[in-house]
Amino acid sequence: MKIRKQTYSLDMYLKLMKEETIRSDQDCQRLSGQWNCNMVNELIFTVLTDNYIPPVILGEETVNGIVREYIIDGLQRSSSLFLFRFGNTKITKSLDEYTVSYQRKILDKDGKPERDERGEILWETAEYDIRNKTYEQLPDELKDRFNSYQMEVAVHQNCDQTEISKLVRKYNNHVSMNSAQKSFTYLDAFAREIRDIIQNRFFLDIYTCSRNDRKNGTLERLVSDMVLLCNYPGQYRKDSKVAFKWLNENAGISDFNSLNELLTRLTASLETTPKTKVLFNSKHAHIFVAAFKASVESEYKDAEFGKFLEWFVNGGNQTEIDGKSWDIIGTGRSTRDAVVVRGKVDYLVALMEKYFEEIRKVA
User: Fold this and answer.
1) Considering the entire predicted model, what is its pTM?
2) Residue closest to 84 by CA, chosen among 165, 140, 143, 23
3) Taking a C-beta distance cutoff of 8 angstroms, is the pair 60, 159 a contact?
4) Alpha carbon of residue 151 to chain centroid
């Protein structure tokens, strides 16, 4: 099969879809409408700001001399843009960036373009908030930008339906970013520091790692949560995207360097047992690291924290603080809820104080 590359204006591409010259109903293709509002919003913003969209892949079939082209890869992009252009789809409020700049003619009171002394039309730069807008509500300049956007297409020629179905399977054999991986993209200022911290011996010797934690974004999320709980506990959020954006704008390199040192110090001081090692999992590792930070700040010896953990897993976690034991905190709620996470950190800090000041002394 030969591949033909070509470029359409978006206006022409969508008209070809409307006329069913380019078809979106290939037998094995999944249905359109798979994207949520956020994904559609970002796609339209990308077009209106003239940024890059990967090529759409088509399969071309010829039957009795009649040529049909089927969308193989890019159906969600195509259908989303189609519905915005022809289906009165509205851009929602959930946009990280929502102001689009463009040039427009300066008009006089009669609506005619103003000109300078040489007769040249005067222009100005304007900004437009695209939230809650449909295509028809856009300024004419942005409609023109949308329609003239250059849509790249790669066409697999001389296919039959069996070959097109194989191509659909081939091109859609991938996994989209999960929420943790996507949230991490909002922490670009410290991405390298986080990836360096993941190489710390803590994540080899102490952390109880599941098979997929290293590739699904869990470790990056944990490191970021550790930085928040150790330095800015009030900014911890269940929604990683919100928390990571805050870190990206407000954290410093020293926050990540100090965490790396803290993890090295914790790893060197612990003599882990199967019971204590299981505490450092994806649900609780950031909480126990924050507790160790509090222990260091209280000037307890590092090795004493390990003894505290041994006591904790052998019944100490049943000790009530303010009427609640460890297992009771957050019952019925998500383990990532900010109230639950901060509540568990507070519980451990109070429990450590009780342990070192009362229980340890009695023992």
Assistant:
1) 0.70
2) 143
3) yes
4) 25
pLDDT in tens, 159-174: 888 888 888 888 877 7
Percent composition of the chain: helix, strand, coil (DSSP 3-state, to 5): 50, 15, 35
Residue 42 identity: E
- CB burial of residue 197 (10 Å; 0-12, 13-18, 19+): buried
Question: How many residues can be counted in the chain?
Answer: 363
Residues 6+ apart with CB under 8 A from 284: 335, 344
Closest to 289 measured CA to CA, from 271, 275, 302: 302
Q: Residue 17: name the closest of 88, 90, 85 by CA.
A: 85
Element (H, E) at 56: strand 56-63
Residues 302 and 271: beta-carbon distance below 8 Å: no
Angle between helices 338-354 and 302-313 (to 10 degrees): 110
Q: Which residues contact 89 (CB under 8 A, 6 or more apart)?
A: 40, 80, 83, 134, 135
Give the Cα separation of 341 and 347 in Å (integer): 10
Which tokens in the block code for residue 183?
Answer: 């949230």
pLDDT, one tens digit per residue, over 27-75 is 666 667 778 898 899 999 999 999 999 999 999 998 888 888 999 999 9
Residue 28 near residue 70, CB atoms below 8 Å: no
- What is the residue type of 18? K
